[in-house]
Design brief:
Blueprint (H helix, E strand, L loop, with lengths): L9 E3 L3 E4 L3 H13 L18 H18 L4 E10 L2 E11 L1 H4 L1 E8 L8 H17 L3 E7 L3 H9 L3 E10 L2 E11 L10 E3 L17
Parallel strand pairs: 5-6
Antiparallel strand pairs: 1-2, 1-9, 2-3, 3-4, 4-5, 6-8, 7-8
Helix pairs in contact: 1-2
């Protein structure tokens, strides 16, 4: 881990810990994916990986993380944090960027096991990764997006202060579907109390970030 210190990085909130998953954590994430993430009639993801059979869904949960770790460079990276709630793996909160050293912009995405819905975890884990991006990496903006019928994700973006940033059109399960884009500026962000970042210093070069703010 000396050469990839991101595995020691932690982002904490009053209820959550965000960390890169261990192999045991990946087992738990795979089990969550098999249990279910959303209602079967809905599809919140641009790539419909949850439409696959359970065994394939479980493998996808593993392979996604391996792919991101293998492809990581300071110029283009995706950091998929496992979300830990009450000692249990609850989902994934991702943050990614391209040319962050220049753009100072990140994008976020996430999923949460269905049995953890309705507890405010989705909002808290998004806030955690925004704290990491703005106060840890020194980001100037963060983007997110969701299908127009993904009301939970849209509500989180609006609750956290994002501004509308336009509409995109996609094909979802063979039909036309729109997503709404959102953007949050650093000046519009206030870190909630009780949030922290641990072990960031050695990781900064891997994120293309030359300094940490507020850590």
């Amino acid at each position: 881990m000396r050469n990839f210190p991101v595995f020691r990085l932690r982002v904490t909130t009053p209820r959550l810990e965000l960390r890169l998953p261990s192999l045991d954590d990946l087992d738990d994430l795979a089990d969550l994916a098999v249990e279910g993430i959303h209602d079967p009639q809905a599809m919140p993801f641009l790539f419909p990986w949850t439409d696959a059979e359970p065994a394939s869904r479980a493998r996808s949960a593993y392979q996604f993380h391996f792919r991101q770790w293998a492809a990581w460079t300071p110029q283009k990276w995706t950091c998929p944090f496992a979300v830990v709630f009450d000692g249990q793996i609850a989902g994934v909160q991702e943050v990614s960027a391209a040319d962050f050293a220049i753009t100072r912009e990140v994008a976020t995405g996430s999923w949460l096991g269905k049995r953890f819905h309705g507890r405010g975890i989705g909002t808290e884990m998004r806030a955690a990764v925004l704290h990491f991006a703005f106060d840890g990496l020194g980001a100037q903006s963060a983007t997110s997006g969701a299908f127009t019928d993904n009301h939970a994700s849209l509500a989180i973006s609006r609750k956290l202060g994002y501004r509308d940033d336009g509409v995109d059109v996609h094909v979802r399960r063979g039909e036309r579907a729109e997503t709404r884009r959102f953007r949050l500026l650093r000046d519009d962000w206030t870190t909630p109390p009780g949030f922290g970042i641990h072990g960031l210093g050695p990781c900064l070069p891997l994120f293309g970030a030359d300094r940490a703010e507020g850590t």
